[in-house]
Specification:
The chain has 315 residues and is an alpha+beta fold. Helix content is 14%, strand content 32%. It is built from 6 helices and 18 strands. Helix 4 packs parallel to helix 5 (179-186).
């Protein structure tokens, strides 16, 4: 059963419900994890032999984001199904991390031979399946021909709109060669031109030469080599460029920044909490600064009230 749940394609509408569990029925850790890929919250709401449970939602949605009911007062499955409605859009989620090259799709790690240099996963935007998973070792002087040449060729060969997740490991900027321009022009990077070997970097973007506006959906982060960076991108399956919403990039440390739709949202920074709110309708960003290294008064200012439906990003 666990393998069957894991193998369900992202975006597929899933219905889970209990029948008449045996007296010794219990949710194992592996089964709980499998069900969270279908948006379940069973890790905090355990199902037992005395409970009834139902969930309806698309595979790959965030845990707890779909209608789900757990009852301990007797079998009420009919009532449960009348209440549960699949209201969430089909979405895919891609996450990318450095300095360890972790790339996840809908919460599951992508298998592949990752190593020093550029670690790349290409994803079909229609069904979130992996098209390729490759490593290009741009740290090794002895490798001929340069892996950056293969990287450029592979990226250019991908269909426009393909989603690419890229994370670096080690001194990836040493022998970038043509890869630097490829990441800038074909993935729309705004930070790659300044990337050096003593930094960690990750990007999730759509492939296409000099794409602009809604046709370019991306998340990008850069930091010192000892700092972790992360990118997170959600997209509606089968309609990648419809209502793409907002993308955020948050980096803390010496190169602290908050970016909204790839534009800096903080004119300056302060010691303590730097926060940006974004109006969900207009996309307008407003910065706030709380110097918590100073007085208690600044800490109390952190209770500033924000409007309902505002999106908040902070470090």
């Amino acid at each position: 059963m666990i393998a069957d749940i894991i193998s369900i394609t992202a975006g597929t509408l899933v219905v889970i419900f209990t029948g008449a569990p045996s007296q010794d029925f219990a949710i194992s850790d592996n089964l709980a994890f499998a069900m969270t890929t279908c948006s379940a919250k069973v890790t905090i709401n355990p199902i037992t032999s005395s409970s009834s449970y139902a969930l309806i939602g698309p595979k790959g949605s965030p845990s707890g984001s779909v209608p789900e009911i757990l009852s301990y007062t007797g079998p009420k499955l009919q009532e449960t199904f009348q209440t549960c409605q699949a209201i969430c859009p089909h979405q895919g989620c891609i996450q990318c991390f450095t300095p360890e090259p972790y790339i996840l799709i809908n919460g599951l790690p992508v298998s592949g031979t990752f190593g020093p240099g550029l670690n790349v996963v290409a994803i079909n935007p229609t069904n979130s399946t992996v098209i390729m998973s490759n490593n290009y070792d741009t740290t090794n002087a002895a490798t001929q021909p340069r892996p950056s040449i293969h990287f450029t060729s592979d990226i250019k060969a991908l269909p426009q709109g393909t989603i690419v997740a890229l994370s670096t490991l080690g001194a990836a900027g040493t022998y970038l060669g043509t890869a630097r321009d490829t990441i800038t022009n074909y993935l729309g990077s705004k930070l790659m031109t300044s990337f050096t070997s003593n930094q960690s970097y990750c990007i999730i973007s759509t492939v296409g030469l000099n794409l602009t506006g809604d046709t370019r959906v991306m998340s990008e982060c850069i930091a010192s080599a000892s700092s972790y960076t992360a990118c997170d991108l959600r997209f509606p399956l089968k309609s990648l460029y419809t209502n793409t919403g907002l993308t955020f990039c948050v980096t803390s440390g010496q190169q602290s920044r908050i970016m909204v739709n790839n534009q800096s949202a903080l004119p300056t920074t302060t010691n303590g909490i730097n926060l940006v709110t974004v109006d969900a309708a207009s996309g307008a960003a407003s910065p706030y600064y709380f110097n918590t290294s100073g007085s208690d008064a600044q800490c109390r200012c952190c209770t500033t009230s924000f409007k309902h439906s505002q999106l908040v990003s902070l470090y």
